[in-house]
Amino acid sequence: MALVFCLNPAAVLLNPEMPLKDPGTGWHLVTGRLVLETGRPMTEDVFSFTQAGKGFVGGAWLFQAAAAWCERLGGLPLVTAVCALLYAWVPVLLYRRMLAERVPAPVALVFCGLAFGVLMVHSLDRPHIVTYLLFAWLLSTLWAFRRGDIGARAVFIHVPLMIVWCNCHRGFAVGLLLVAIFAAASFADRVVGRRTTGWGPTRTLVGLFVAMAGASVINPWGWGLHASTAEYLGMESIRYWNEYRSPDFLSGGSAVVAFEVMILTLVVALAFARARLDWLEVLLVVLFLHWGLQSLRHTNLFAIIAAPPIARGIWSLCGEFPALARRLADMGRQQAALAGGWLQIGCASATLLVLALRCDGLFRRDFDGIWLSRGAVDYIEAHMGNFARPFNTDDLGGSLIYRFWPRLRVFVDDRNEVYGDRFILDEYFAVREIRPNWREVLDRHGVDSAIVDSGSVQDTLLGSAAGWRECYRDGRNVIFAHGPNAPIQPR
User: Fold this and answer.
1) Is 196 strand, coil or helix?
2) Number of domains, the chain
3) CA within 13 Å, CB half, 137
């Protein structure tokens, strides 16, 4: 178990930039600072000049405040270490469920590693790690209850956890959906006579759903958070962000390869395994596979749902090879005879935290060079007066906010709920996609400069447009000024 726990911390140590590669991490941390300073969630936009003062429902204030508090204590390294340790529990929960379902430790370890290959793409310092962790925990609890391994009282631990969940990330909605599906399945089993345990399990699951739904209202916006979440999921503009697009099976990276391998292994497990899956498990696998194929963001949920039944199916298939099955079973019994690994997990956690606080060079201490180059940062710092209303692309917004707010306000970032469909699709995309009215949009917002990626279409456009002058360029970013008197950085 300790080895499974160490998968994510090891990945973070090997690739220190990975947890900070999400464009939104910067504004999450600055929002958290404001929460700590004011004692309340941020409800109006203060980061952009295009939406200044606009009200919105954030939904992640608790995670943001906790992350900012960690940053105050130990900078970005401590934020990264704490997030890595939280996320490390997701494969552990999968591993423990596989062992509870009689999968030998070696087989469980292999498929936890495969699932982590999918999960690793979202090993980021962002609130969604709370959703993946609490979703995996809730799923394990619900299956243990359905198997009869735990009593009714044990499932209600997720009621107070829902209070945490709904104040950390909008993904709490999938937790409510999961409980509703289990309750409906329990009802259906009772009606058709699949189970003879009476109505007790159904009443428990319905009660759990009602209690968790009630707990989800304990947030600064009440039911408004639910309405805002539904509105957000219905936004057209989010379909243009990579995480909401279908996985790219041609060039999507190692996580998409792991996702594809999981799908193919699932087919093998379903086709050749001796033991049949619970019909509810088949339903969940199909449902979350559908969502995973629609959106890269949901491949993690599929991995959490599918890894245990895949492991059971492959273990069942091993019965066709008696010698191999006996050897794996013996290794599993030897592993079970060892200590549970809690001490090793505690030591690994303490070690990572000490490394984050004491050792320079193991963790990133800033965002410079990830989205915004150090040279661009220095240039903006030296000529701050020229960036009253800069145009920037959404991927640079978080880094600009983290590095320069409140002295600089951005044109846009990746907070769709703040900017709304009309601004993103009609105005921001007019510049991003070089539509005929791009100049009209920039003039309407009084844009005086631009910070974009080198080699981007905006680089090509502004480099040849009348009234725009290149001020700085490196391999990552290029900066333009609107007007003839902009200072030029010597090359």
Assistant:
1) coil
2) 2
3) 20
